[in-house]
Amino acid sequence: MGRTRQLVADAALAVTLAVLTWGTIELDRGCECPRPWWALSLILAQTLPLALRRVTPVPVWLLVGLATGVHGASDLADPPVYFGALVATYTVASLSSRRSSVVVAGVTAVAILAAMLAAGDATLTDVVLNAVVFGTAWILGDSVRVHRAYTAELEDRATRLQRQRQEDAWRAAAAERLRMSREVHDIVAHHVSLIVVQSEAAQVMLPARPEKAAESVGAIGATARQALGELRGLLGTLRRDDPGPDGLSPQPGDAEIASLVGSVRDAGLPVELVVDGTPRPLPAGVALSAYRIVQEALTNVLKHAGPAAATVSLRYGDRQLEVRVADDGVGGGAGRRGAWPPGDGGGWRWRAGSWTSAPARRGASSSTPACP
Hints:
alpha+beta, Heat Shock Protein 90, four-stranded mixed sheet, rod-shaped
């Protein structure tokens, strides 16, 4: 539909220029002597091909130029301006390549000079005037071509940037899904392990020590409520487009490791927390990583170390936090079916600027810089 509109507009322009050229010649001629039949044919040859100027600009320019040259070299009255040749020159300069438009400009200049010399009555003023008029038409067309190319480059760049933003958003969403899946895994694995240990202890103590069994059952309820609260706070972010700072519960960090150790101790695992250095505020990502490392390590101790005692050491340095979790268990998960072999609990280590997985052995440690 756009091409059809262009053809209709160019056809209307061609007819208008034909009428305008013919009218200006008749007004300037100043006599009523009849004109030869081929005079009108030359005028139509200079204007009507412009209906296809945007389809084949160079052939149209060539045809219009030949008709204009013949008209200029003949004894026929010249129009004040060769409108068809001007439009054809402008079109080639605006639609063709720079190389083609420069060639066209040179050929046009030579043709104009040759036609005026052949007429024999051209003055220097006529030559300069025609050079200025046709040069202006070519400069305008070339400016339009440059502007069109610049606009196309900007649109292409905007398209690439939009595509890049979409890809970045997809990657960020994938990374966030992976992070949340790890968070859910850590929360569920830790609290379910505590619930299993406490329920087994309650089952053993129920016949002989019902009051202790009741404490274990209460601890199971508290652990379950804590797990639900953490899951609710984590998954609640998925229900909001923009939760805002007041819509999110704070993520656990190194300050909550003491309460984590206390909950594991209440589950029946003797665990001690040792802090070396002066605790100070850490970046949120570093503090959360430290908490999850300790949580994962203690969960593995509960599941796989068998009867054991554990020690959690936090060492605050100038620009780093060292986290160390050690146990004296023999492995085998207290004889439970499906337990891993000793020393294969799995864990995380910070090394060379990234977290990597590594088997958890007694004495294994992980550290992360306190500053990004």
